[in-house]
């Protein structure tokens, strides 16, 4: 299949971290302005942001790329967030996306107030989304390694009281699943459920299928981030099909983190054929030095997917999105019109 066609296809993406999709030129500007210890040559600087090309797959090294000491002021937060949302679509033709952000990433180093930081984040993201007319909603991420759950419960209650979260359509759990298993966050996700937010949980990425069971049964996950290990547990496969749990898969990320040995044998195609609701996503394009189109190319060139497979991945994403049913129907109709215009 022609790369140009893959690039032009409209795409629904449910799993991309803004902290892994920052605009490199803006980070370079901020790093130089704040006299941070980074190369003063842009090309060398950009290499430091990325998972090293010559590295073996390595989850801890991948996560170490989420550096959070850029910001000397909330103006710096605004600049990075605004420019990264403006440049979100890197010739990928995103038709609808749910972009996740971790408010604590922006606040933790300088000890900014989380409520004030969140307000600045949302102002920047919303202005950029409006300016570029993107169809994008937000997911809030809680990082497993930053704070214990009691602190998250306290701060989330403050967010609910003081911040307008209208376009935040769901909550995510991310970070180091090796050292911080999902059962550490059951109270937090019970609270999230009581507020009526759906959630997506990173699980079974580099650990076992057991974390996927916990994410569904104890954390009320409607979607699983990655979850490649589902392929190893036939009982779980049956269970996720019955419950309609969707999987946000990211083949290139999964290779770099070591979640899966290569993109050729990645389970996304087999799961799709078995009727599991899988979706195709980029995860962290700046860290990976990729775009979402590269994940489409991997699915076609290395796994042998056809246009019908790609269409199903996208309609699965519409169904699994955290939009209302009415919004999903509207999105589905608009998406299909655009898809048909592109392929015929
Ligand atoms: N945060 C950003 N990318 C991630 C990944 N692949 N796994 C867990 N947390 C992440
Ligand atoms: Zn992720």
From TrEMBL:
Q: Which cofactor does it need?
A: Zn(2+)
> What's the Enzyme Commission number for this chain?
3.5.4.4
Adenosine deaminase domain location: 10-334
Gene Ontology MF: a single term: deaminase activity
The superkingdom of the source organism is Bacteria
Q: Report the InterPro entries cross-referenced here.
A: A_deaminase_dom (IPR001365), Ado/ade_deaminase (IPR006330), Metal_Hydrolase (IPR032466)
Keywords carried by this UniProt record: Hydrolase, Metal-binding, Zinc
- Pfam families given for it? A_deaminase
- Coiled-coil regions in this chain? none
Membership in a protein family: Belongs to the metallo-dependent hydrolases superfamily. Adenosine and AMP deaminases family.
NCBIfam families in the record, alphabetically? aden_deam
Q: What is this protein identified as?
A: Adenosine deaminase
Native organism is Entomospira nematocerorum
Gene that encodes the chain: add
């Amino acid at each position: 299949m022609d790369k140009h066609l893959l690039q032009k296809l409209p795409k629904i993406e449910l799993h991309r971290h803004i902290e892994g999709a920052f605009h490199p030129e803006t980070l370079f500007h901020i790093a130089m302005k704040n006299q941070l210890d980074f190369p003063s040559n842009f090309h060398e600087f950009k290499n430091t942001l990325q998972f090293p090309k010559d590295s073996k797959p390595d989850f801890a090294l991948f996560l170490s790329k989420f550096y959070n000491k850029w910001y000397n002021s909330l103006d710096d937060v605004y600049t990075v967030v605004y420019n990264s949302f403006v440049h979100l679509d890197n010739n990928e033709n995103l038709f609808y996306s749910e972009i996740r952000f971790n408010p604590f990433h922006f606040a933790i180093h300088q000890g900014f107030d989380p409520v004030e930081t969140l307000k600045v984040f949302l102002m920047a993201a919303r202005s950029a989304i409006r300016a570029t007319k993107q169809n994008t909603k937000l997911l809030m991420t809680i990082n497993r390694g930053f704070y214990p759950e009691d602190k998250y419960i306290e701060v989330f209650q403050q967010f609910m009281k003081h911040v307008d979260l209208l376009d935040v359509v769901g909550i995510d759990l991310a970070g180091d699943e090796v050292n911080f298993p999902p059962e550490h966050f059951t109270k937090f996700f019970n609270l999230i459920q009581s507020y009526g937010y759906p959630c997506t949980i990173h699980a079974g990425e580099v650990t076992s299928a057991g974390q996927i069971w916990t994410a569904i049964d104890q954390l009320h996950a409607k979607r699983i981030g990655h979850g490649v290990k589902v392929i190893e547990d036939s009982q779980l496969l049956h269970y996720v099909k019955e419950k309609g749990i969707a999987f946000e898969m990211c083949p290139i990320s999964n290779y770099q983190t070591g979640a899966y040995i290569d993109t050729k044998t990645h389970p996304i195609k087999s799961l799709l054929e078995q009727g599991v609701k899988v979706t195709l996503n980029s995860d962290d394009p700046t860290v990976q030095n990729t775009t979402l189109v590269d994940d489409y190319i991997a699915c076609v060139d290395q796994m042998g997917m056809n246009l019908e497979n790609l269409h199903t991945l996208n309609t699965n994403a519409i169904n699994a999105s955290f939009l209302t049913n009415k919004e999903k129907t509207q999105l589905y109709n608009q998406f299909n019109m655009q898809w048909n215009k592109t392929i015929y």
